[in-house]
Amino acid sequence: MGIVNVTPDSFSDGGKFYSSSGLHSSELLQSAERMAVEGVDIFDVGGESTRPGALAVTTAEELARVVPVVKLLKQHFSIPVSVDTSNPEVMRAVCDEGADMINDVRSFSRPGALAEAARTRLPVCIMHMPAEPGVMQDNPCYTDVVREVGGYLRLRAQQCIDAGIAKENIFVDPGFGFGKNLQHNLTLFRALPVLAQGEFPLFVGVSRKRMVGEITGKKEAARRVSGSVALALLAVRMGAKIIRVHDVAETLDAMKILYAVEGSSF
Length: 266
Description:
Largest sheet: 6 strands, parallel
Radius of gyration: 17 Å
Strand content: 5-15%
CATH class: Alpha Beta
Number of helices: 10
């Protein structure tokens, strides 16, 4: 899954495709074309930054950022488009434009979001995030992070099923970096084989995140590519089914090497 952020303030690529002057359509299409050539399987479009400390955007602003991008991608590519949103109005609008998946960091907890997600009949991804982005990193605390995250994801998945979302359309994401410190993240990562044994396919997003910088000593997000690729390989090896990345070519090259050495088909 290749990341397409249309935000002015995302931690790694804020302002690259969207700024105060609006959408940078030609740059976005060039980047999407490069991802397509590199072998991306899914585009993931986000119009609201969820980095630590980020503030929510208005519905009108998120619609203005996301809907034109979904239109562009669906017009120019046959690659599925996921939309990273928690807003039911945005879910409705992007579904009408042909979006193929909804990826919600808030696990459809906003009023009306779960019903709207069910109405779209699209695949969904639910993620563990214990608080809003603005405060989620304020001293996160767990008694047993693996048990608590796993329990939350099972509960939300069942609530999705109860709301009418097909079980086979549900993916789960442990939410690395969302309300978790480095030790929480590492403990969760080591438990990926356990989480992957659950009923729902596992989605992992660690690309260029703070945990990579803390481990490698790389402050700048753009310098965390190698560490991100290493974690992506480990995640796949430990059972992840979808990997959300900034660096498609580098990640796929490494995965091809892994599969070749192991004698597996890619």
